[in-house]
Structure formats: structure tokens, C-alpha cells
Amino acid sequence: MLQQTQVSTVIEYFERFMSRFPTVQSLACATEDEVMQYWSGLGYYSRARNLHKTAQIIVNENFGVFPKERTEWEALPGIGRSTAAAIVAFSFGAKETILDGNVKRVLMRLHGIDARADDKDAVKRLWALAEDCLPDENIDVYIQGLMDFGATLCTKHPKCLTCIFQKECKALEAGLQEQIPRPKKRLDRPVKERTFLLLWLDNECLLQKRAEKGVWKGLFSLPQKEGILTEQQIEVAVRAMGMTIKNMRPLESFSHDFSHYRLILHPVAIRVQDKGESIANQRWVSLSELPDIGLPAPIRGLLERFFA
User: Fold this and answer.
1) Strand ranges (DSSP E) for the chain?
2) What is the gyration radius of the CA atoms in the chain, in angstroms?
3) 157: which DSSP letter?
4) Interacting residues of 301 by C-beta distance below 8 A, sequence separation 6+
5) I need a surface site. Which of 65, 107, 219, 263 has the fewest CB within 10 A?
6) Per-residue model confidence as pLDDT tens digits over 128-181
7) Is the whole model's pTM more than 0.85, yes or no?
């Protein structure tokens, strides 16, 4: 949960998730819908799907026994070298190092590596340095201390006056502590526009489970169409779904940022006369059911505002 997400955001989700799935067996036996429900709003949903798949592999193929080697963890869905190393170091005391953003920053400043943190050659050198620095004992204490040091002292704007490494830090010696690491290359974020159909009748709305690949795969959302649809195009789309429009009105458009693109949502509230035919991956839900359904954060917010 902490990958790409701050502790303050994660805490509430973590407590709810662990309360519902206290063991690897309980997570493995859950449906994907339920797992997504407890992850709803946290974003980066591939993490939840990978976590679920990993739990099933551990229970069904490893008989509930957790791997003890880093390479075994790396073979599981969604687990990279640094995460795998953290798991075996904290759980089993294995002599493995991590290389998260905080640790990279600390090592780059200490050794005066004037580069971007994602530079391929720099990362290769950092892994070697991180391994060389490992102590023979108390691996978990060392790694936790290193992460906390980067998170609290050697931050983006470092607190050098209280740092115990003032004499050893090459970045400080060169006056580059604020410039190292260099900022990552900025990528132009493309913009995608989609029309979202908020089909409703009385106190129910139509949701559609996302089956296709994408960040919202496995979540329920509103039926959507590429681009900005005209009223006539919306009428055609709704008729194709077997429903008749009673009235409709556009709602305020808004944006939502993903890591690789910006999504502009153009929601249209459509009151229909009937529910039409039952279609796979679609379901009508009442307002009382919404809290128990895995929804993307922007869609949940939209529905809460509309039905407030």
C-alpha cells in the first residue's frame, strides 16, 4: 500500500484491509470484487490484484508457507527487487538491502552521485553501494533506520545542521545537497476525454464492471464512451443498452490524474424509464449498496455529489 502512496493516506485503508483479511488464507479465499472493495479509493489498483494473486499462489501452491528467499518473492506478481528484499530482511533477517526513494537519496548525497535517481547507471551503482553497506547483524534495524533517516532528515530539503554525516557527505562538501538527486525527466502527460453515463432510476444507478485492461480493471464504474458525446450519440448508446431516456442533463466536467495521463471526465446524468435488459458485467445498485462496492475514487465522488 505504501508504494507511491503516503503513510497518512494508507493507515485507514491498511487497518480496514487487515481487519477483513487478517491471514493470507482469508485473502486468498476472497473474491476479487471484495478485495477491490477494500482497496477502493487508494488508487494504483494493480497492487490489489497482484496482492490477491500472490496470496492465492502462496496458499494453493506453497501450502500457506511464505518464501524465505528474495528471488522467490521476486517471482510473485507485482513484487520487485526492493520490496522482495524488504520482506525477507524484516521477516527472516536475511542479509538483503532495499533501494527505495529515501535510500537512493541518502546514498547519492553521501557518495556525491550527481545524477537522476532513475538513471540506469546510477541505479546500478547504488545497488552495489547499498549491498556493501549492509551490516552482518540487525539487518531489520539497519534498514528501518536508513529509511527513516531519509524520510525525516535527508529529505528533499535536507536538515544538514543536525546530520551525523556532515563530515562524510560529499554532496554537502560540494554544496550540492539541494541539487542531488537531479529531478527526473518530465514526460508530457497526454489528455484523454471520456463521456460517463450516469444512468439512474429512482434511488438506483447502473454500474459496469471493468473487465478490459487498464488502471480500473476489476472495479465497478459508470458506462463510458471515448470522447465527448453529443445528445444524439448518447441517445443511440442508451437505446443500444435497451433503455429509454426520460430526461438527461450534463454534469460538471472534471479531471483526474493518473501516472501516465490525465483523464477528463464528462458525466451526463440520464434518468431512464426502465432498467432494460440484464447485461453481463452490469448491475443496478441502490445508494445504500455503494459503500460496499469497489469504485474508483473519482466515480465514487461523482455519485456522492449527485445523490447528495
Assistant:
1) 191-201, 204-209, 220-221, 224-226, 245-250, 254-257, 262-272, 282-286
2) 24
3) S
4) none
5) 65
6) 999 999 999 999 999 999 999 999 999 999 999 999 999 999 999 999 999 999
7) no
